[in-house]
Amino acid sequence: MNFFRLLGDLSHLASIFILLHKIQTTRSCRGISFKTQALYVAVFVTRYLDLFFRYVSLYNSVMKLFFIASSCYILYLMKYKYRPTHDPSIDTFRIEYLLGPCFVLSLIFNYKFSFSEILWSFSIFLEAVAILPQLFMLQRTGEAETITTHYLAALGVYRALYIPNWIYRYFTEGLVDPIAVTAGIVQTGLYLDFFYVYFTKVLQGQKFELPA
Amino acid sequence: QVSPSNHDEL
């Protein structure tokens, strides 16, 4: 564990609390992509299957359980409690275009051709692109509530911080995880456009609006 | 030395 990874994980935690806060205070999940949230459940469940057979640390296990539980809870809130506030007609990204290629990639790129390792690779690739339905929705509506942008920023910062973590680990431990690093760089790259608008508008006190 | 499938990250 190093500073960058800890900060990244905390940012990930923060993003989930911001999202829950947004849903609870506005009593609405408007502007949140159900598809992206469902993909996160798939990501966490497939990656954290190792809870059953690998123990890393208490921190690691607690975080894994938290991510699975909170992502399922968010899905529940969107699907049942605040269902009328979710508009599927603007959440139209075709997730099969993500699931299919990620699955094929995981068959090709994995550290061992075993059930759990293939699922692990799949979850890494899927996480990299899971935000696309959300960004697509943002693009369609052209604007977002400020709190939603804070959620997305925290989520983007989380993976961005994993990059210095990997550089640090390379120099201190000689450790390189090419699958996670490649996917992580792609994942962070997807946020660049968003980050640009976030830093130049939202953090200057303006509303998040995309140019028409 | 390089053990990529450690999976100790979240």
UniProtKB/TrEMBL annotation, chain A:
Membrane-topology annotation of the record: Multi-pass membrane protein
GO biological process: protein retention in ER lumen; protein transport; vesicle-mediated transport
Signal peptide residue numbers: none
Keywords of this entry: Endoplasmic reticulum, ER-Golgi transport, Membrane, Protein transport, Receptor, Transmembrane, Transmembrane helix, Transport
Subcellular location, record wording: Endoplasmic reticulum membrane
Membrane-spanning ranges: 52-76, 97-113, 119-138, 179-199
Principal location: endoplasmic reticulum
Highest taxon above the source species: Eukaryota
Record GO cellular component, one term: endoplasmic reticulum membrane
GO function term, MF aspect, one: ER retention sequence binding
One Pfam family linked to the record: ER_lumen_recept
UniProt cross-references to PANTHER family, sorted A to Z: ER LUMEN PROTEIN RETAINING RECEPTOR
Family: Belongs to the ERD2 family.
Protein name in UniProt: ER lumen protein-retaining receptor
